[in-house]
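Renewal narrative, Specific Aim 1. Our central claim is that a sequence can be written position by position from structural information alone. The example that follows is taken directly from our test logs and has not been curated for this report. It begins with the structure tokens describing the chain, in the order in which they were read.
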């Protein structure tokens, strides 16, 4: 049966299987026989995150394994980020031999229920004859119109058995994101377009659904045809070129202050591929009530969940945008909001001036905004920036100007995700360079996977914004608790990460002066293999979070 699973996985174009191995040798031999490279990571969490980063960039399933018992449990604990990001990760794990269940066997854990709340689809394989078809079902569930992680559990004693089946290989026309798209209702889109045409201050919010739909050209075409400014959620960053005059930037919690202000002034909002959740709306403090809200999504569960929706349209983002552009081009009488768009562009230009002035070094170290600017100078347009959560996501989301395309991924909530996640992304796009932007707190989660990067020759560049602290926690204490200090949960020992990287065989450098930023980053790129740049930044510099009481400079 292991052979049937491996052949079916290979039929979908699978290149890698991410794991922390332990037993189940029939499976590894079958994967090797199919030419699938096994990426043995340093923890089940890093394996899950690598599979996630791979899946997001490749647009097809990332497979992760957990050995029966604690291994499978650890994978389950690492699935929420893929769930939050709608990433097609497939956890195909083993479970204890059926004859040993309920007998106090070593490492016996009922892991199937652990996956129920962190996956979209959760099943156990009961007989070897159904192995291939259950893999097909898992792939379809992971990559459907509402993508997300799934779990298939396989009793370990089934792996050596004869599957006795012929339905092996990928299913025709499926197996990747956007294989199946929901066609929009043209009549409803025409009504939505009319409402946008009547608006004085219309605005588009592009979410993760626009990026996962690969609707970049369609988004640019509709923005140009309609003249409507486009804001994005953090997950939607890259839906439009952020240097476009119609680009407003990221809204919500990890955002530009000006972007939230522009959204507050809009009168009609078209939200595409976003659930309008807590991150996108700064905990629902970004006001949408009182506006006309039009929402397009592939998941009907999001309509009206957080705000009153004036019109709900079930559709794939790319097909909807293409149809809107077609309808708009056919009706030259629809007004353009050019005065509003010009005023928005002027506000963004003014914000950029303030942001540039805000990059000055502080008494205790470099300003993180200077690091972001140096990264933009060094990185090519189609390179991938992967950002950790917390302050890192705020700095990258608000300040790193990105071209349209799938050039930005980020932790959807799990601190430390980015180092293994970026490694997975680098394997998915070897023709591009991937940079993992993290802090010292995030790096320490999975620093052992520097060994994985060397062993697998993954040329990821890790940039550490190091302030010897959980900076976000320190600032939250400052603003919400009157400056109360709890050093044991905020401050860290000063670690020489560059020396640690070199001990793994990774190119390592430390930067303490701003003038050394660009040369150090260029040298990391030139190293060819995995590299780490430890940049000493200010602890006092506050990222552009939007939470009650936060001082918003940018």
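The sequence written for that structure reads:
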């Amino acid at each position: 049966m292991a052979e049937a699973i491996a052949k079916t996985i290979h039929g979908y174009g699978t290149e890698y299987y991410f794991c922390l191995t332990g037993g189940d040798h029939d499976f590894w031999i079958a994967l090797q026989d199919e030419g699938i490279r096994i990426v043995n990571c340093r923890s089940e969490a890093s394996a899950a995150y690598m599979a996630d980063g791979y899946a997001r960039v490749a647009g097809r399933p990332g497979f992760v394994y957990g050995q029966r018992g604690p291994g499978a449990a650890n994978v389950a604990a690492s699935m929420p980020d893929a769930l939050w990001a709608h990433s097609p990760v497939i956890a195909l794990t083993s479970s204890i031999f059926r004859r040993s269940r309920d007998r106090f066997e070593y490492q016996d854990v009922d892991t199937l229920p652990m996956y129920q709340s962190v996956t979209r689809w959760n099943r156990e394989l009961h007989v070897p004859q159904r192995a291939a078809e259950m893999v097909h079902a898992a792939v379809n569930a992971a990559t459907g119109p509402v993508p997300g992680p799934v779990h298939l559990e396989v009793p370990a004693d089934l792996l050596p058995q004869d599957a006795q089946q012929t339905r092996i290989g990928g299913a025709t026309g499926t197996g990747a994101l956007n294989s199946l798209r929901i066609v929009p209702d043209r009549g409803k889109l025409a009504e939505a377009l009319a409402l946008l045409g009547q608006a004085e201050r219309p605005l588009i919010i592009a979410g993760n659904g626009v990026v996962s739909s690969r609707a970049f050209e369609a988004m640019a075409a509709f923005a140009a045809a309609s003249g409507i400014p486009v804001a994005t959620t953090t997950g939607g960053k890259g839906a439009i070129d952020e240097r476009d005059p119609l680009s407003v930037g990221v809204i919500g919690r990890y955002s530009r202050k000006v972007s939230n202000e522009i959204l507050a002034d809009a009168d009609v909002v078209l939200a595409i591929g976003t659930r309008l959740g807590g991150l996108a709306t700064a905990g629902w403090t970004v006001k949408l009530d009182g506006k006309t809200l039009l929402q397009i999504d592939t998941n009907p569960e999001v309509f009206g969940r957080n705000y009153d929706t004036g019109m709900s349209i079930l559709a794939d983002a790319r097909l909807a945008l293409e149809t809107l552009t077609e309808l708009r081009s056919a009706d030259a009488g629809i007004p353009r909001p050019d005065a509003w768009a010009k005023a928005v562009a002027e506000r963004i230009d003014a914000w950029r001036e303030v942001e540039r002035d805000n990059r000055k070094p502080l008494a205790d170290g470099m300003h993180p905004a200077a690091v972001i600017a140096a990264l933009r100078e060094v990185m090519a347009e189609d390179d991938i920036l992967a950002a950790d959560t917390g302050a890192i996501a705020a700095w990258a989301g608000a300040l790193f100007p990105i071209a349209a395309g799938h050039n930005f991924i980020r932790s959807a909530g799990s601190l430390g995700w980015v180092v293994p996640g970026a490694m997975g992304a680098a394997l998915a796009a070897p023709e591009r360079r991937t940079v993992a932007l993290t802090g010292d707190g995030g790096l320490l989660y999975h620093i052992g996977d520097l060994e994985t990067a060397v062993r697998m020759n993954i040329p990821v560049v890790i940039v550490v914004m190091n302030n010897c602290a959980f900076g976000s926690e320190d600032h939250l204490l400052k603003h919400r608790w009157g400056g109360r200090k709890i050093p044991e949960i905020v401050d860290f020992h000063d670690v020489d990460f560059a020396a640690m990287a070199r001990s793994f065989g990774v190119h390592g450098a430390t930067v303490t002066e701003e003038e050394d930023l660009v040369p150090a980053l260029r040298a990391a790129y030139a190293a060819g293999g995995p590299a780490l740049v430890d940049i000493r930044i200010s602890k006092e510099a506050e990222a552009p979070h939007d939470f009650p009481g936060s001082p918003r400079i940018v």
